[in-house]
Amino acid sequence: MTHHPVVPSEGGNISLCTGSGALDQAVEAVTGLPTVLVGEKDPAASRLLAARLPQARNLGDITAVDWPKLSAAVPRPAALTAGFPCQDISNAGPRGGIAGDRSGLWKTIAHAVRHLRPRLVFLENVAAIRSRGLDVVAADLASIGYHARWMCLRAGDPEVGACHRRDRWFAVAYPAAEDPHIPARAQRGTATPGQAQGGRARSHTGGRSGLLAAPDGRVRLLPTPAAADGTGGPGTSPKRKGGMNLRTAVTLLPTPAARDWKSGASNLLGTNSRPLNEVVVNLLPTPTASRYGRNRSASQRASSRPSIEYLARDLADDQRWVATNGTDYGPAIHRWEQVLGRPAPEPTEPGTKGNRRLSPAFVEWMMGADPGGVTGTDLGLSRSDQLKILGNGVVIHQAALAYRTLLAAGAPEAAAPEPSQLTLDIA
Predict the structure, then answer these.
(1) SUPFAM superfamilies, from UniProt (predicted)?
(2) Are residues 180 and 329 in the same domain?
(3) What pLDDT is recorded for position 411?
């Protein structure tokens, strides 16, 4: 059950670099603020926003907006959200930093904040911004009179529970003269490597914010979705941790099929089209009438052991997410299934040439989005557009947890109530 804090609704939330609107969903879950304006120029994402957020006017290309004029025409926003481009900041990109052609859009966002003066600013980017732009973000916010608090959080951390890593940076900023229970005093806890003790969190190349949740090294995580998953085919990427992209990892998984519960080992060994993991089949005992009853039964005279049919079903279910290279993604998948309250869809779908390819519905599930929110047929989006939008998005649960933590961190009473019951007073 979602608990919405009490916040002034006047002005609502203005979203820039909106994409799928996932970041705004996280902000609304934390603050209860509806999104009233979006800024998105991508045609596919704009079509999605028109259908999913019909009440929000699209400003289009935010570099072409007259911000002084807009600020005079709309009520002061209670919040502004921006998950600005990470291509120049990410370890998987050219690493040019926040001054790059794409990530340099931050300057436009800072310009918007200067004129709109939102009561709260919610920002998101890749964790690498700590060494490729956080100093610029902090300096720009300070120059317009905003304090900021930030942290890094992985979607794969146990507190979130996603089945992929997705390491992201989150920040909350606010006007220094209008402290919304976020005092600009020292963060609680010991400073991490490269982070100064006392004052606001600062850019560093070593450790992470003291608010970081510890990683869970016991779960093997899938490669995190990326916009590039919508182009090309399976392959490896030397810039990715482990060298494997999501498209490759998914094609290594045996695709679930109805005949998994009927047939034995496939002769298509080594291909993704085989119906059941060869290792699982080899583990099955040889069925004999004397050792196994035909069906499960509560009868005292029935065999106490399941039939080969049922045993095969149980083992196949356990091995469904074991890749052909032996990597067991099952624990990570099942953990996220429990968090979302719904089973994972099939990871692949039939390709145009009879092959299997990454399913956008599976990526949508990995990102914690509502089924059909991006992949719905009513939107008429191409597969590549769906994967691009999802890859550029944010895991809603991850962002909501980060923002709740950041907003509660400075409040004197923050240690007592649960984060989901956080109450803000930013009037």
Answers:
(1) S-adenosyl-L-methionine-dependent methyltransferases (SSF53335)
(2) no
(3) 62
Asked, for residue 20, whether it belongs to a domain, the answer is: yes
Q: Which helix (H) or strand (E) holds 113?
A: helix 106-116
What distance in Å separates the CA atoms of residue 14 and residue 83, rounded to the nearest whole number? 12
The structural domain count of the chain equals: 2
CB atoms within 10 A of CB 210: 17
Same domain, 64 and 152: yes
Residues in Cβ contact with 413 at an 8 Å cutoff, skipping those fewer than 6 apart: none
The active-site residue out of 17, 86, 152, 163 is 86
What are the residues whose beta carbons fall under 8 Å from the beta carbon of 52, sequence distance 6 or more?
21, 373
pLDDT per residue over 333-381, tens digit each? 999 999 999 999 999 899 888 788 899 999 999 999 999 999 999 999 9
Q: How far apart are CA 278 and CA 120, in angstroms?
A: 54
386 is a domain residue: no
pLDDT tens-digit series, residues 19-63 = 999 999 999 999 999 999 999 999 999 999 999 999 999 999 999
Helical (H) or strand (E) element with 154: strand 146-154
**Which residue did the predictor score with more confidence, 19 or 10?**
19
Locate 162 and state its tokens: 């996603």
- The answer to whether 31 and 424 have CB atoms below 8 angstroms apart is yes
Decide if 142 contacts 121 (C-beta within 8 A): no
Residue 181 lies in a domain: yes
Whether the CB-CB separation of 268 and 262 falls below 8 Å is answered with no
> Within this chain, do residues 30 and 164 fall inside the same structural domain, yes or no?
yes
Structure pTM? Answer: 0.73
Catalytic-residue membership of 152:
no
More confident residue, 248 or 78: 78
φ, ψ (nearest 5 deg) of residue 330: -55, -50
Full residue range of the structural domain in which residue 255 is found: 227-375
- Judge if 127 and 272 occupy the same domain: no
Q: Are 77 and 12 in contact (CB under 8 A)?
A: yes
Distances (CA, A) of 282 to 29, 147, 253, 278: 48, 61, 17, 6
Q: Give residue 221's pLDDT.
A: 86
